[in-house]
## 1
Amino acid sequence: MNLPEPSSVHRVGIIGAGTIGASWAAYFLARGMEVQAWDPAPDGEAALRAFVAGAWPVLEGLDAVVDGATPDRLAFHSGPAAAIEGVEFVQESAPEKLDVKRALYAEIDAVLPDGVVMSSSTSGLIMSELQAGFSNAARFVVGHPFNPPHLIPLVEVVGGTDTSATVVDWTIGFYDAHGKKAIRLNHEAPGHLVNRLQAALWREAMDAVLTGLASVEDVDDAIKYGPGLRLSAMGPFELCHLAGGPGGFSNFLDHFGDALQHWMDDMRTVELTPEVRTKLKALVAEAIGERAFASVAAERDTLMLPVLSTLARTRREHGLY
Ligand SMILES: NC(=O)c1ccc[n+]([C@@H]2O[C@H](COP(=O)([O-])OP(=O)(O)OC[C@H]3O[C@@H](n4cnc5c(N)ncnc54)[C@H](O)[C@@H]3O)[C@@H](O)[C@H]2O)c1
């Protein structure tokens, strides 16, 4: 398989330019690339250009725009075949529906240029099912970003049954070469890895408010004023290692293992029945209160952008990538 040098890729195709595809487009443009996009929505081009225009100053503020990069390198095309003509990589961010993606893949499969990998943003569909039967299946892979991809570095990479191992390696190398932080999943799983980790947290958060252990506000505060702060710097295993003192993770398990087992045994699986959903919606609506959606989003951005900027700069300065 004749794939380009990952760092040399300078023209990418964006298929589907909604929440995620538009964010990917802004990211690749900020990396100085040419972006060829397609989205079937009637206002697809206008919405994409508006998104990129809004994201650009934020990316500049984060020092994430490389020298010479410009939003003018964005071209919008009339269909998937035109959008992937001449590209060296495709990021697919079509709706999360197996039949929609497979119909799209059939169109792309017929024209995917040689040596071009197509990576799917899918949050939880299984690549083995997405790629089955296509002649270019070996070059179809999952590159699941964390929303919004123009700001959050993580991409989870996993291949399906028919994806070539070379393609998985190449895709990780491609994302890493262009400023993302790619992780490798060794096999497929519903929700990949990160959404499963999040689901574990959401399960406990929901259980806590359903059983009356704490209010919605206190559960949110518990994370954002506590573990959330450390989790932006260290992963769960690194934190366990530190919790064990100089004896590290081994000491942590020896000292806290029985307690941890007791807590885990006490945890329940939340069943999201209609009644439970109604109750959760009411509790969260009450906690959010009169705060408009846009003001909650603005609060997140006001707090997150300096954190992202500081982490990126400090990691660069200390060689901590
Ligand atoms: N929203 C998230 O938080 C998030 C995070 C990570 C990954 N993803 C994944 O990204 C993908 C896109 O999700 P989204 O949130 O951007 O959805 P979205 O609904 O915002 O965007 C989907 C876009 O695809 C377009 N579209 C419709 N039919 C299409 C077709 N046949 N071919 C190509 N494009 C088509 C739509 O016009 C729309 O602009 C999904 O696979 C989703 O699982 C979403």
## 2
Amino acid sequence: MNEKANSFIDFIGMKKDLNNHTEEIVIKTMKALLQEPEYNNICTCHQCLLDIAAYALNRLPAKYIADRKDDLGTKIAKFENEVNIDAVSVVKKAIEVVSNNPQH
Ligand SMILES: [Zn+2]
């Protein structure tokens, strides 16, 4: 591939089409957990939520999905089941760590 051809490739555009499905699972898990009474007093400011998500995402396997055609729905559901149990305990730990050491 020559340099000119390379300049037509939308490498920056790749980023928006690459989705780490683990992000969706973590956010969904956070949303569910933070509604529980035991987490009533947890700070849910933007910074703390990002810190909780980052903590959890750094400890769970990434699952990148390049497109959403074919039987991907089934694959996602299967992956979600496998990761879900882990996600709950990791997000619980993340909430505990961040709420004990908020960056503000
Ligand atoms: Zn906060």
